[in-house]
Amino acid sequence: MADYPAVTQDKLDNASKSTDWLTYYHSYGGESFSPAKQIGAANVKHLKMVWSHKFPADLTQGFEATPIVNGNYMFVTTPKDLVYAFDATTGKKIWSYNPNLPQIAYKTVCCDVVNRGVALYGDDLFVAMLSGEVASFNAQTGQINWKKQLFDPGVGYAFSLAPLAVDGKIMVGSAGGEYGARGFIAALDAKTGDTVWKTYTVPSPDEKNGDTWPKGMYLHAGSPAWLTGTYDPESKTLYWGVGNPGPWLAELRPGKNLYSDSLLALDANKGDIKWYFQYTQHDSWDYDGVNTALKANIKYEGKDYHALIHADRNGYFIAIDRDTGKLIYAKPFVKTESVTGYNAQGESINDPSKYPKIGTTVKTCPEFLGGKNWWSMSYDPETHIAVVPSLHACGTYNGTKVSYMQGLPYLGEGFGIVPEPGSKGYGEVQGIDVNTGKKVWGHWSKMPWNGGVTTTAGGIAFSGSLKGHLYAFDTKTGKVLWKSPKLASGIVAQPSVYEVNGKEYVAILAGYGGANPIWGGPMATMTKDVPRGGTLYVFSLND
Question: Is pLDDT of 374 > 80?
Fold first, then answer.
């Protein structure tokens, strides 16, 4: 193997121009867009598998990581926090690591024991684990540099995200909203693992917006930060989504419940909150606001904006001014009944009749998995199209009594799933014009579509289905240009597209799992025969 090329801050700042895949979303802006263009509409039909790697058979949970590629080196993680390094062109295994997590680490994990990948910085690789540990490895050899325990396992918290490396710091955010664990975002020193700053996503009573919660509830108010954020190197601002409040049942916590279901703009050096935008105030439907906020320069109604675009669980495709945090537009991309719109101040307008109460059941759209869940959408800056994996389903909710106990679920609601009236299936890959917020094309699927999307300068949008095929769509029109042979399992991960020695490759992890088989009701039933187990596939053009 060639020597490992150091991942400098300059490389990360300019990753959007790179044909490596250096961070979870390819680059800091979150676009999941590769400038690679060797593979295009004319030749994508010639894609062939060049190598694959089957992971241990006992890993039957969701494979949700995006392969990270630096030079000749590829890194992936699996369920239960195993880490693998491969030669990105041949699939030869370079090293692997198994943390052999203690059983208690799985106790307070909500939606499958998944890991979404690694961060790279300097000569090192970083991974955050379900057990509360963050670890640093030498990326070339797999030798451990340090491990730090940020919380005890089994008390409500977990880590399931890919960390983000910024200016010598490693950023992580906690999971645990279903257990009432008070969410936080933290920055660790990349060299030592020491905590540089830690910002809670629920303010205490003496902090600004602490009065948006009932007295004493902030300590177990959920609002986790369980998906990787994005970053602007010019303003040194992190943009990080925050999940659902705890408990789910809103009548138990009067108020706006900040910063649940929000986007936070944070000072990357100190962790101070610069501004926030709350997607859903006083949420009672599990409409996490963690979905990625992608950088996009848009022209809306004749005016230019530096924007962040986001497809929310509540069913709205939203554009926010990234300098001020003010709403530019919000347009429904699935059926929306709980949130009926936004007022002039950018606050969600919620339908009071759609709030579940103790002893009553309500039906509303979308259901708790949302119009889009964590699956990465992608933005092609050349066509101004965002490609969004979306879910068409509604749900029933009924209130139940609940009190907080550490390490136990903290919901206060029962729930179910029903099809969205009039839809052609549960899943749809949508192309949305970010300048208008309107859909320009849709590819329907009877099954849910849980695969993340990657677009390329070749005009291709790659995304995988639960039936086990990787698709290449024309980004402008949604036309299917290529479909892989059936892979060993369904796809819930995002592809990465990269070049080594001038040759373009497409990598995807297949391995069905995640929230759908656990919580999906009729969607889980229709996918019950999807095989389990993980395989990494890499495709390229014939020489």
Answer: yes
